[in-house]
Design a protein that fits this description.
Elements: E1 15-23, E2 26-33, E3 38-39, E4 46-47
Antiparallel strand pairs: 1-2, 3-4
């Protein structure tokens, strides 16, 4: 039996997907988080500061 999934099954609900582009060997997903802040796993304090932007 072949399994099917929706694109939403592949992305966490916390992400806003802005665009998806595909090329023969590459899929590029442009997304950003929905939350205004995030809790530090080490100190437990919520921060709204953007530390960096990363292109992967």
């Amino acid at each position: 039996m072949r399994a099917y999934c929706q694109p939403s099954d592949l992305m966490p609900v916390e992400l806003n997907v802005e665009a998806v582009h595909h090329r023969p060997a590459v899929i590029v997903v442009t997304a950003h988080g929905q939350a205004r802040g995030c809790r530090c796993p080490e100190y437990g304090v919520t921060s709204r500061r953007v530390q960096s932007n990363l292109l992967r």
